[in-house]
Design brief:
By secondary structure, the chain is α+β, with helices and mostly antiparallel strands. It is built from 5 helices and 4 strands. Helices cover 35% and strands 19% of the residues. It has a 4-stranded antiparallel sheet.
Length: 159
């Protein structure tokens, strides 16, 4: 899928900065914050949504309070890196809820996964039962995070 860049002006940027922090803000309050009236603010927000710049709104949960404080980063090396193999791996990864992030990497391995579980015992099961059985996995290497020093959930548009 080839995406093109969507041009945004300073008002669009302000809208994105505000909703990145407070996605539940009313259009009236958003308009006050960015210095426009309600109608043009609403039209701009709708345009950003329709263009796919704003893909949706969601609630953010604290994984530690939910008991999912074990974070592992997993290097995955595939036995086959042709397009069909990558597509099969990508599709399978989306079905594993413990995988928070999956990135195709240019380097000595093929994918880097961020996996969050309730603890080492739960991670060991996810590794053995799910990650190791993903299509075309040749080997994995796990790195356990001891502490999250910086972990941002949102990035305002101005960044």
């Amino acid at each position: 899928m080839n995406k093109t860049t969507f041009e945004i002006d300073p008002f669009d940027r302000k809208i994105l900065d505000v909703i990145a922090v407070d996605g539940r803000i009313t259009v009236t309050d958003l308009a006050l914050r960015i210095g426009l009236s309600k109608s043009p603010t609403q039209a701009r927000l709708r345009r950003l949504e329709e263009a796919g710049v704003v893909r949706g709104y969601c609630a953010l949960f604290d994984p530690i309070l939910l008991g999912r404080d074990h974070v592992a980063f997993v290097e995955v090396k595939l036995s086959d890196t042709r397009e069909a193999a990558l597509a099969a791996f990508n599709a399978a990864v989306t079905r594993i809820p413990e995988i928070e992030q999956c990135h195709l990497i240019a380097g000595s391995f093929d994918y880097l996964l961020k996996v969050r579980t309730r603890g080492m015992a739960a991670y060991r099961i996810v590794l053995a039962e799910r990650l190791s059985t993903l299509p075309h996995v040749a080997n994995t290497s796990t790195y356990v995070a001891m502490q999250a020093v910086k972990e941002e959930v949102v990035m305002p548009a101005g960044q």
